[in-house]
Amino acid sequence: MPRCPNCKYKLVLLEHRRKYKCAKCGKLFSQKEIDDKEFRELNNKRRAEAKKEARKEYSKQYVRENKDKFKVWAKKHYEKNKEKIREKQREYYEKHKDEISEKAKEKRRQQTPQEKVKYNSYKREYWASHNQEVLQNKKKNYQKRKAEILVNQRLYWQSNPTLSRIKHLREQQKLLALRTFEFSVDKTLNAQIPKVLPTISLSYLLGL
């Protein structure tokens, strides 16, 4: 929509006079002059967009052709600015935590069975070759954030008493199962004593 060169208000075309009129300031402008100006501006805008796209495509092609160099540069840059990069990543994650989680869930829901198999296979391969590194990083992260993690866990269990009760009952159930297993092992061993020492009498064992 053409606009007035003076006040930037929308122009109205008077077809019978072949002129544009500004409804705000009331000035008249030649239709040819305004149309030529609009065409030049549109042409310049499209040319600028084409140059921008060409620069983007050239950058992508340059990166593809020099992938190894960029990998080396990216690794050096990361090692040099590791703490700053991680801090920015943490800040971004804290601000967009819900959005990132929702996107990840949506992506997993849209995965095909073949993609799920491929992704799980990749995770297993990565774990097999980096398990010690992953465990060490988890331990370091836990030691750094131990106080925060414990506070969050305490608050979580306080705000979910039912889950806390379930956890307590499961721990008691686990202890009971261990005691039952130990008792059954002891009972089995005691039952085997007479078979191992068949010549020793019960009175001798009791010291009678």
* Secondary structure category: mainly alpha
User: Helix share of residues?
Assistant: over 70%
Kindly report the average pLDDT value. 83
Number of E-type strands: 3
Report the uncertain regions: none
What letter string, H or E per element, gives the SSE order? EEEHHHHHHHH
Strand content: 5-15%
Q: How many helices does DSSP assign?
A: 8
What can be said about the biggest beta sheet? 3 strands, antiparallel
Distance between the termini: 116 Å
Query: In which order are the strands of the major sheet placed?
Result: 1-2-3
Structural shape: elongated
CA-based gyration radius: 38 Å
Helix-strand blueprint:
Elements: E1 11-14, E2 19-22, E3 28-30, H1 31-65, H2 67-80, H3 82-95, H4 97-109, H5 113-144, H6 146-159, H7 161-196, H8 202-206
Antiparallel strand pairs: 1-2, 2-3
How is this structure best described in words?
- Among the domains are: 1-65, no CATH class; 66-96; 139-180.
- It contains eight helices and three strands, in the order E-E-E-H-H-H-H-H-H-H-H.
- The protein has helices at residues 31-65, 67-80, 82-95, 97-109, 113-144, 146-159, 161-196, 202-206, and strands at residues 11-14, 19-22, 28-30.
- The chain is elongated, with a radius of gyration of 38 Å.
